[in-house]
C-alpha cells in the first residue's frame, strides 16, 4: 500500500474497527462527530469530514490530517512506513475495488458516503463475514465461564444481574501485541454466528473498549417459543440484556439478533430474510445513526417493522433507560412480547 492509497481509505470504517463509533452525523453523513479517541471527554470534539473524495479528521484545538496522520497518532508511530504496514495488516483482499450498490433496481457506483457506505457498504450485493475486522494485534487466548468480581461490579452498575450475565456472557482473554503484557487482557463477550467473539473490555473497569476477535458478525439468541415468527434487533449485547431485565425474564418469546455494529446491517437483513420472520422489533439507539438504520429496516421490510426507540426516549439506548429506572411504555399494537 502506498500513501495515496492509504489516504483514500474509509477513515470512519477504520475508527469503527479501532472501537470508535460516531455520536452524531451531519451534512448527509459527510461529517461525523466522535468523542475524542485521544482523551476522555463528555462532549464530542473530534470529527471526520469527507472532502475532495477523501476522509480527513480534526481534533478540536489540537490537530488533524489524513488517514495516515490519524494512524500515526492513534498507534504512536513515528514513521509513515509503520502506519502503512499497520493499515495493510488491517485491510486485506480487494481493498481498492469500487463498491457497487443497487439504486432503483439497477447497479450503481457508490460515490459518496452515507450511514452504511462508510461502515462496510451494508447495501452491497452479497454477504461477506468480516474476517479481517479484528486487528492483527489482538489474539484470542481463552474463553471461560464468567467469574470476575470486576466484571460483575461493572455490569451491576449497568443494571445487569450476575445471573443474567452468566447465562449470556463469557470471560474472554486476549493479547494485544501492540501493548505487550505479562498477563492477558480480559473482557466479557458473546460468540457470534461465525465463531468470532464480540468483546467489551473489563480490565480497567470502564467497559469503554469494544472490539471483535477472530471475525465480526451478528449474534443470534433463540426465543423460548420455536417458530414464533418474531425477532427483536439490538445494536449491542447490553441492550438485549437490558430489555430482558426490564421484562423480568431470561429469554424473549421470539428470537433476538445482536448486530454488534450498525455495519452488520446486510448480515442482519439476510438472516431475517432467510428465517422468514413476520415481525421485526427494533431497539436501536436514539441517535442519528440508529434512526437512519431504523429507516433502512423500514424501507426494506415495510410494515412488519416496529421501531421501539421512541418508547425509551429521551434516553439514548435501553441500558441508559434501565439505569434511569424507566420502563418502555409500549403501545398494544407495537408491543413486543417478553
TrEMBL record:
The organism's place on the tree of life at top rank: Bacteria
GO terms assigned for molecular function: DNA binding; zinc ion binding
Coiled-coil residue windows: none
Biological classification of the source: Bacteria, Pseudomonadati, Bacteroidota, Saprospiria, Saprospirales
Pfam families: Toprim_2
GO biological process terms, semicolon-separated: DNA replication
UniProt source species: Neolewinella xylanilytica
Name of the protein in its database record: Toprim domain-containing protein
